[in-house]
Amino acid sequence: MKPNVIVALLVGLVLGFAVGKVVSGAPGSDPGRVEVAGSAGGAAPTEAAFAIKSSDMPAGTFTGMSDAQKYAVMKVMNDNTCDCGCDKGTLANCVKTDPNCPNSPAKLK
After folding, report:
1. What was the pLDDT predicted at 100?
2. Which residue in 23, 30, 55, 78 is a FRET match for 6, CA 20 to 30 A apart?
3. Model-level pTM?
4. Residues paired with 75 in a beta bridge
5. pLDDT of amino acid 9
6. 16 burial via Cβ count (<10 Å: 0-12, 13-18, 19+)
7. What is the 3-state secondary structure (H, E, C) of the chain?
8. Over pLDDT 70: what percentage of the chain?
9. Alpha carbon of 75 to those of 10, 16, 61, 63, 86: distances in Å?
């Protein structure tokens, strides 16, 4: 191979490695991590905008959880639709109005 080709391949390798390091350190790159808007060092977000609040869920559901954790759970429950065929709408509404649902309570737990 010509020296120019080897140099070009090495430069590409170094750039690829550098870009990979930058991207892997970016917020949200960890698929198991849930980031809550406004929770980094500031005041914890509130459930005020949610149709169904954590206080509407069965007693003991959020025992030992922080307000930010409750917010994260209720955001998911309010943003996703129950697919059990009950036509109750969101997962949170289904848990609140249909405790016998085979889908929503299991997802809440």
Report:
1. 82
2. 23
3. 0.56
4. none
5. 78
6. exposed
7. CCHHHHHHHHHHHHHHHHHHHHHHCCCCCCCCCCCCCCCCCCCCCCCCCCCCCHHHCCCCCCCCCCHHHHHHHHHHHHHCECCCCCCCCEHHHHHHHCCCCCCHHHHHC
8. 77
9. 46, 36, 15, 17, 20
Written as six digits, the tokens of 92 are: 């949170």
What is the Cα–Cα distance from 92 to 84, expressed in whole angstroms? 13
How many Å from the N-terminal Cα to the C-terminal Cα in the chain? 60
Q: Which residues of the chain have pLDDT under 70?
A: 1-3, 24-44
**CB proximity list for 102: less than 8 A, separation 6 or greater:** 84
Residue 103 in tokens: 């889908």
